Amino acid sequence: MAAPVSRFISVCRKLGTFLFNSVFVAQAATVVHNMDSGRPTKLEFAVQMTCESCAEKVRAALEGKPGVSSISIDVGKEVVLVEAALTSAEVQSLIESTGRRAVLKGIGGSER
After folding, report:
1. Average pLDDT of adjacent 10-residue blocks, the chain of 112 residues
2. In Å, how far are 58, 93, 94 from 97, measured between CA atoms?
């Protein structure tokens, strides 16, 4: 009798996690959509990087792109900070074009 109960609890946890993540992604998308795209935005991504070579590939994918103002990469923390007038999806696509997975961790406005 304990097995069906524990299975039910497991399914409920998975469903709860899925719903939480769905709401979080929807809210993030709304924030990105509502931001003024002409003004630079600070974006923080978690990016799978294991060495400086990985970081250089990410930097090369972002540097010189229209709309990208600044880039900061911390390989040890696997974090990429980008200030750009691009959407988070556009920046994420540039990062992922290097073969690394990127997840948006945070978004904020830039000082004028």
Report:
1. 68 64 57 57 93 94 93 94 94 94 86 56
2. 9, 6, 5
Judged by DSSP in three states, 71 sits in: strand
CA dihedral 32, 34, 37, 42 (to 10 degrees): -50
Cβ partners under 8 Å of residue 50, min gap 6 = 75
Q: Pick from 36, 53, 55: which is nearest to 45 by CA? A: 55
Residues in contact with 86: Cβ distance below 8 Å, sequence separation at least 6, in sequence order: 37, 65, 67, 68, 94
If one counts every other C-beta atom within 10 angstroms of the C-beta of residue 9, the result is 10
| Residue 18: CA count within 13 A, CB half-sphere | 6
